[in-house]
Specification:
Layout (H helix, E strand, L loop, with lengths): L1 H7 L8 H15 L6 H15 L12 H14 L3 H14 L1 H6 L4
Keywords: ATP-binding, Membrane, Nucleotide-binding, Repeat, TPR repeat, Transmembrane, Transmembrane helix
GO molecular function, one term: ATP binding
Pfam families: Fic
Length: 106
C-alpha cells in the first residue's frame, strides 16, 4: 500500500483525471488489501478521484460488466490499462448526459 500512495503523490498528478482514476481502481484491485469489498472500495476510490477532478461518477451498467471485468483483468495481468481507461472514459461521458439534458445541450 505504501508504494501505491507513493505513486499517487508523484506521477498520477500529471495524468488525465479519468486515466488516473482508472489506474487507481486497477491497482487497488491488484493489491487486494482487504479480505472483502476490494472491488467496491476500488470503485469508490475511482469515483472519489473523478469527483475531485470535477467529473461525474461512473456507474458500470449490468450490460457492460462483462467488458468491465475483461478490461480490468487485462490491465491487471498484462499491465495494459488502455481498454479499461477507454471504457471508463465512455462511462464518464455517459454520466454527463443528465447534466447536458438539464442544460438543454442534449
Amino acid at each position: 500500500m505504501q508504494s501505491f500512495f507513493d505513486w499517487y503523490h508523484g506521477e498520477p498528478q500529471r495524468l488525465h483525471p479519468v486515466e488516473r482514476a482508472a489506474k487507481m481502481h486497477v491497482d487497488l484491485v491488484i493489491i487486494h488489501p482487504f479480505r472483502d469489498g476490494n472491488g467496491r472500495t476500488s470503485r469508490l476510490v475511482m469515483n472519489l478521484e473523478l469527483m475531485r477532478a470535477g467529473f461525474p461518477t461512473a456507474i458500470i451498467p449490468v450490460e457492460d460488466r462483462a467488458a468491465y471485468y475483461e478490461n480490468l483483468d487485462k490491465a491487471g495481468k498484462d499491465m495494459d490499462y488502455g481498454p479499461f481507461v477507454q471504457q471508463l472514459g465512455q462511462l464518464v461521458e455517459r454520466s454527463f448526459e443528465p447534466y447536458w439534458y438539464l442544460l438543454g445541450i442534449a
